[in-house]
Amino acid sequence: MKKIIDFLEENGAVDAGNKKIVAYGIKRLIGCVGDFALVIAVAGLLHIVWAGLLFQISYMLLRVHAGGYHASSEKKCAYLSFLCTLLCIGLIRYAAMGDGILLCVSFLCGAGIYRDAPVESVNKPLHGNEEAVFRRRTRMVTAAALLGCVLFYRWHYAYFLRAVTIAEAVVFLGMEIVVIPQKYRKYIRQKKSLFYSRGQCGK
């Protein structure tokens, strides 16, 4: 990546003011290309390339706006992403689950995403008006995903239905890993506050 930055710098496309931003963008682009290459390779071996691509696109659009768990390092993130991709593509191909159940799971996960997103992580906090913007975008993408699942259910496109449903489920689980501990800590704080306030009243 350094060679790319140096080349762009030599040609006047990058300067000291935007070098970090451009480097981050290139890193994200390389990561995105790598993710799609992995999906195409694994899904191609299982003869479900289009379903694999639909999963990756659905997951990417939901995840980037909904937020959720973020690993503490890039290496951990890459490792978890690799394992998650392999597992999800395998589930799309081999999961023995009725279309009606999948549709119900899609709506349950979609409702959870709609309610809780965006989720702020310790390793990736939200800034400024990002919460309002991401909430609106997440709800739009979730609505599109649910509409797609309804259509795939009606048209009996089982692999496509699995792809979008699994993408929703992974995003929802990633959110709840962060949300549940946050809600528990909030509950404990409220209990402690109520306990101390009652103690003060007793005095």
Q: SSE string, helix = H, strand = E?
A: HHHHHHH
> What coarse outline follows from CA principal-axis ratios?
flat
Mean pLDDT over the full residue set: 87
C-alpha termini separation = 66 Å
By secondary-structure content and strand pairing, the structural class works out as mainly alpha
Model description:
The chain has helices at residues 2-10, 19-45, 49-66, 74-94, 99-116, 130-155, 158-202. Helix 2 packs parallel to helix 4, helix 5 (99-116) packs antiparallel against helix 6 and helix 6 (130-155) packs across helix 7 (158-202). The longest helix has 45 residues, at 158-202. 81% of the residues lie in helices and 0% in strands. It is mostly helical and 203 residues long. The termini are far apart.
List the helices and strands and how they pair.
Layout lengths: L1 H9 L8 H27 L3 H18 L7 H21 L4 H18 L13 H26 L2 H45 L1
Helix pairs in contact: 2-3, 2-4, 3-6, 3-7, 4-7, 5-6, 5-7, 6-7
What's the gist of this structure?
With 203 residues, the protein is mainly alpha-helical. The chain is 81% helix and 0% strand.
